[in-house]
Amino acid sequence: QQQVKQSPQSLIVQKGGISIINCAYENTAFDYFPWYQQFPGKGPALLIAIRPDVSEKKEGRFTISFNKSAKQFSLHIMDSQPGDSATYFCAPRMDSSYKLIFGSGTRLLVRP
Amino acid sequence: GAVVSQHPSRVICKSGTSVKIECRSLDFQATTMFWYRQFPKQSLMLMATSNEGSKATYEQGVEKDKFLINHASLTLSTLTVTSAHPEDSSFYICSARKHGRASDTQYFGPGTRLTVL
After folding, report:
1. What's phi and psi for A82, nearest 5 deg?
2. Quick check: B75 and B66 in contact, CB under 8 A?
3. pLDDT at B40
4. Which of B57, B108, B114 best probes binding to A when mutated, by most A CB atoms within 10 angstroms?
5. For A4, nearest residue in chain B (alpha carbons)
6. Cα separation of the two ends of chain B
7. Which pLDDT score, from 0 to 100, does residue B104 have?
8. Which among B4, B43, B105 is the nearest to A89, CB-wise?
9. Calpha distance A79→A19 (Å, rounded)
10. Per residue in B33-88, pLDDT tens?
11. Phi-psi region for residue A40, left (φ > 0), alpha (ψ -120 to 50) or beta?
């Protein structure tokens, strides 16, 4: 049972452009919606996260948009930089067990 | 910030041997630690949840006798891959959740690359 669907699988953006990654989920027991960034050979690092009582959260160049009724949330990276080139995962959390359910990942390449 | 370390960062072993991987929370106490496995170009798959002082809870399809988890203190969890085989070669990552009031964030370690020859 695939609980989390992430898209696109890969994304190429020019420097200065906007990168948008989407995540759709099925389980209503998720109560916390983080995005993680992972560089090759490293562990994931928390980028930004949102709770379901908020529709949008912005931290610097990174914004999460959350649509509870549609069961979707997205990551927007403004003014994308080559240093943002990495793999991004949505990983909503189960409210009872604190487990993170990882999406399939999006490989972002920002061209100079 | 909260720091999680893993040791070793990479290990190469012969088929049939056992390998132990340590996960430590360096500057906080971790109520719960999680162990993930990641194959190349794939997502992280949760293997088990480890709570200090109790038995680990394994995800469906993960052999608990093969992947032994011990969470002896609030800052240390270990994963032992017993009788390792080439198909166990993977990137193993742990994460830790802070002890205390309900904490949202899991802090991830840098991962351990296991290669079984």
Report:
1. -55, -30
2. no
3. 92
4. B108
5. B43
6. 37
7. 66
8. B43
9. 8
10. 999 999 999 999 999 999 888 889 999 999 999 999 998 888 999 999 999 999 99
11. beta
Spatial CA neighbour of B114 closest among B36, B32, B53, B2: B36
pLDDT digits 0-9 by tens, B6-38: 999 999 999 999 999 999 999 888 889 999 999
Q: How far apart are the first and last CA of chain A?
A: 39
Residue count (chain B)? 117
C-alpha distances out from residue B9 to B59, B88, B109, Å: 24, 16, 10
Inter-chain contact B111–A41, Cβ cutoff 8 Å?
A: yes
Does A92 reach chain B within 8 Å, measured CB to CB? Answer: no
Interface test with B, best of A35, A99, A107 (most B CBs within 10 A): A99
Q: pLDDT value at position B101?
A: 55
Task: Give the pLDDT of residue A98.
Answer: 85
Chain A partners of B61 at a C-beta cutoff of 8 Å? none
Nearest CA in chain A to B49: A99
Residue numbers of A between 51 and 90 with CB closer than 8 Å to B: 51, 89
* CA distance, residue B111 to nearest chain A CA (Å): 5
The total of other beta-carbon atoms located within 10 Å of residue A5's CB is: 15
And the tokens for B106?
């899991």
Q: State pLDDT tens for residues A24-81.
A: 999 888 989 999 999 999 999 999 999 989 999 999 999 999 999 999 999 999 999 9
